[in-house]
Predict the structure.
Amino acid sequence: METNARDVFIQNINRIMKEKNKSQKQISTDLKIPLSTVSSWVNGQSYPRVDKMQKLADYLNVSMRALTDKTDQISNEEIFSQNLMHYMKIKNASAKEISEFCKVSENEFEKWLCGKVMPKLNKIQILSVYFSCSISDLIEIKDNNISKSHGIKIPVLGRVVAGIPIEAIEEILDYEEISESTARTGDYFALQVKGDSMEPRMYEGDVVIVRKQETAQTGDVAIVLVNGDEATVKKIRIMDSGIMLIPFNTKYDPWIYTAEDIERLPVKIIGKVVECRQKY
């Protein structure tokens, strides 16, 4: 189990808050998030959901990777150097052209390009104008620019039960990564598969990546809560009279619920499976 995901986040959020001169109370007020929640993030008592992580990153004007990734393995000079080379390739610009635009010697520019020296802020501002990008695009780890970058970490839950919000579940078994572009499309969590009802597509111990949503279409594999029990993973078939939950394993019968059952029990869809990651 990766035990340092929260530690990395704690280090990053505290460092960035200090750099941006932001307090827990200010973040709480501006983002309309309870102070107790913000405090639990900063102190490592809980880990933000993906949507909250994005909201926090936007507020602090950093990428989500700046909050979730280790940054001590690559220097600021190296990050800037790789971003600079990235934008030079896009613009097909030479060192001579850019050094003249920035009014620095080619020798000084070569130091930037080699990751030996970090330009002063006024020069970075000039470069951002030249490349038509933001300052953060030049100084932060970016998906397409830095090969070291990883994905956004989401918690792997051991179980999901009725009556407990997903963000409040404390049985976190591990963390999985999804791409930042995927993370922007919704709120995600991961769930460990239990039992053999979904074999041979999913085996016990596999991890499914789930986008939170309350509806599903025929053919979708969804996470469903039935009668207040622990959540189950099943294929969905929508019928005129109700819903059918279908196991892939043919030794198990489908579960059929009428519209009345759906309301009475209830039967509640809480997410759609978008990926299954096999664990051997």
